[in-house]
Amino acid sequence: MKYSTQDKLTIVGAAGMIGSNMAQTALMMKLTPNICLYDPFAPALEGVAEELFHCGFEGANITFTSDIEEALSGASYIISSGGAARKAGMTREDLLKGNAQIAMQLGKDIRTYCPDVKHVTVIFNPADITGLIVLLYSGLKPSQVSTLAALDSTRLQTELAKYFKVPTDKILNSRTYGGHGEQMAVFASTTTIDGTPLNELIGTEKMPRQDWDDLRQRVIQGGKHIIELRGRSSFQSPAYLSVEMIAAAMGGRPFRWPAGVYVSQGKYNHIMMAMETSISENGISYKEPAGTPAEQKDLEESYSHLCKLRDEVIAMEILPPVNRWNELNPHIR
Amino acid sequence: MKYSTQDKLTIVGAAGMIGSNMAQTALMMKLTPNICLYDPFAPALEGVAEELFHCGFEGANITFTSDIEEALSGASYIISSGGAARKAGMTREDLLKGNAQIAMQLGKDIRTYCPDVKHVTVIFNPADITGLIVLLYSGLKPSQVSTLAALDSTRLQTELAKYFKVPTDKILNSRTYGGHGEQMAVFASTTTIDGTPLNELIGTEKMPRQDWDDLRQRVIQGGKHIIELRGRSSFQSPAYLSVEMIAAAMGGRPFRWPAGVYVSQGKYNHIMMAMETSISENGISYKEPAGTPAEQKDLEESYSHLCKLRDEVIAMEILPPVNRWNELNPHIR
Description:
- The structure is a homodimer.
- Chain A is an alpha/beta fold.
- The first copy, chain A, folds into two domains: about 10-150, NAD(P)-binding Rossmann-like Domain (Rossmann fold, 3-Layer(aba) Sandwich), CATH 3.40.50.720; about 150-240 and about 245-315, Lactate dehydrogenase/glycoside hydrolase, family 4, C-terminal (L-2-Hydroxyisocaproate Dehydrogenase, Chain A, domain 2), CATH 3.90.110.10.
- Chain A is built from twelve helices and 14 strands.
- In chain A, helix 1 packs across helix 10, helix 4 runs parallel beside helix 5 (about 125-140) and helix 6 packs across helix 8 (about 210-220).
- The interface between A and B is large, with 48 and 48 residues.
């Protein structure tokens, strides 16, 4: 079995649980033999590299470094899970500021060391914001930067499969858009359950309205639930899905879920958020999701929430005001 | 992409780091859609199952249970990483006894709930001993039970690649046999470095004898080194390699490394240890490795060490004396 490409894929944050899983996943998917692992925490990074060597992947050329210049030079693809985790005593703002600064530096480093990179997928939280910052500072085109948003949609699929007691494959086109977490917009109108539109089931005896509301809450709390059950944040699913995104960007199988994308047309502007997207060798493109008036309203609220987060980052002076974005990145209108 | 088989694969110990990686790996390899996750620790098990659901694997039929009868009923393949970890204050004997008892119960459960299982791979430590116990109590044929031994050989490959500064693919047929850890027999005579037999390099300026001895020590300490670097035991490489073993047992790609197998002919008898093996739909078979007189001596010492461990388990009355094994499992001569 051959590798899809020889292009260099750099995994930023490779010493962590998500990053190390990404590396294994990318090697198993045979995306490219040329995988570079980067992490500032050198001992754990070496430990991860050793583990991957010990898997004995044929033809693999795994390198690892704590030097960002070495890591990014020549990279065609980047996945970054390299944010900081929330620590005791840290406020939400502390976390936002810390990860926003990490994203700013990553964007600058991309501009300096690999301006010819083809695609970058950013997954550290809040991913819509960190992805936006990376986009602006890297100078890349909006089509070249995506963020992980699929987990909310796969969690919706999972909860619907459990509720209706059908295999997950019977739940088609489950979709959430906008932001992540509390403020996501859960769409019912796109989804079918074993061929029946979900909206025809909600409010009937097959799915009373209250059950649907409860289910949406479980989707929103999906990440928190993993922590409660497993004692650690989810890492397998974000790693796997983000590598699927990069596989699509390499020209592989189309990515089947929404992704976060830079949006600036119609009623949503100067924001990165989950839309109906496709990812191919030409990068990420999107269309605005259709939905019921109530769903559109949810999406507008989600957008407003993201704008507030973005404006916080502007107030922190990590991003310039929107009207000066074009100076930072001429691809941004 | 289709699954290789519809046969049920049960992962025992699926809530742990190794088991959860195995499940992801098996699904990514498309071995079978029918994966059953078993672990006595129900909350973490559910957390792992959720993570796998959230990956959105198409066509997957992932089930999970803390009921061993449900887990094993109908299973065609089993991988078990379900041993206990060494805890503070535990002696080596405590650990051996604990895991030997777990292996005994697993063997009995296999005999009760899935006597028609096709292949079982055991990886919890000491794997040669726990595998032997599972074999004896399950009543399976020796060809149906294998243990993970490949990590020592992949670590040898890794260290040689680093030493000679060549890609790992240039290191062919790196092999360790016998037991695992301190007592493994590291064979040099089987290995070539970019086409040159390793034995022609050892003791020359290209690899002074002391360097080879140091390298062997690094191989032996490979697992300990991962713990020092990463702060946790290796989990990605044992998970990945053991799933490769099961893939071979399902009739997939031949497994490329030594595995632990029940040995009872020639000079090695009534023991499970790493030999030159092949794994196919017909199970695991082996041949005794050829080697230099010094290597043969190392292997004999490794065998003696394993016999001592086995005899400890007999003294604990977890296994009957060797001459009564045939009563426990008529396939054992």
